[in-house]
Write a structure and sequence with these properties.
Elements: E1 2-6, H1 11-22, E2 26-31, E3 46-49, H2 57-64, E4 69-72, H3 86-108, E5 112-118, H4 119-126, H5 132-135, H6 137-152, E6 158-164, E7 166-168, H7 179-185, E8 194-197, E9 200-205, H8 206-217, E10 226-230, E11 234-237, H9 238-248, E12 256-259, H10 261-278, H11 289-293, E13 296-297, H12 302-306, H13 314-329
Parallel strand pairs: 1-2, 1-4, 2-3, 4-5, 5-6, 6-10, 7-9, 8-12, 9-13
Antiparallel strand pairs: 9-11
Amino acid sequence: MKVFMIGGTGLLGCEAATTLIERGHQVKSVALPPLPEGAPIPEEMEIIFGDINKKTDEEIEEMLKGFDVFIFAAGVDERVEFPAPVLDYYYKYNIAPLERIFPICKKVGIKRAVVLGSYFSYLNKIRPEMKLEERNPYMKSRMQQEKVCEDASDENFSTIVLELPYIFGTQPGRRPVWTVLIEQIAFMDKWPCTMYPKGGTSMLTCHQVGQVIAGAAENKAGKKGFEAVPIGMYNMTWPEFLAIVFDARGMHGRKVLTVAPWMMKIGMKKIVKDYKERGIDSGMDPMQLPDIMDYNLFIDKKYAVELSAEEEDINAAITDSIKVSQAAYDGKVKLLDMKGE
């Protein structure tokens, strides 16, 4: 099988490429330079450096000829800050490339597309009473992305969106996204305890994401048409997760006090003010985020296992992510920022 990927040198794309190559497939990727120093990019993967959004349709068509599967391992998430209107940026990076490339894929005979999405789409579907799309532009954009994938699907072209949760693991030379968590909780280190919501999240390792992407490309489930699949391997409450985080930070036994959403919303008022002063249009409504984090957003691992994910040590992956994030936060290492490639 021949696979063309956007974002093959990123944390998740690289894992997917490695797994696909190990399974005997051919992988070609277009990616933004530079490569993170020391990253285990598979030598067998052909890389075209550049911004695919700046390529002509004719150039993209030439790139895609002869391939069987297209993987979109790129885009931006809610942690990237943009000025208003933020939906325009989500459209630019997460949706417009698919609207443009899917017709070209179908023209050259590609039969399947795999798109990396967000488990917030899953939450939006199972909790309609929260009206998440109305208040959170990021969630609205992810649902729009899924609609583009669904509309592109037909008897000759299938699409699958992987609704991914929190992911742990590191790529040498690249800054983990978990530096943001350190920034959020470090100011409480001098307090008697850390205050955090009582909810929880699903999660998996970056290597498992690579396995799931490869399984989706191979169509392990044997399905056609459009699919949006919630992906997760492990479920933890925030206090359970933070216990591992504090161990990794050398703060074993640190007490976590769970707080009700209304208490968290008091602190969120400062964030709203900060966004306004800096001209930031948040992808997530800060005043609804406490309600979201109060919920146990858990996912049955059967979906990930069906797509070939295998068991791994999630505690070790979290520990590795936090240690590198702490070092980056302390300014002890210089790393490339994660980007929407």
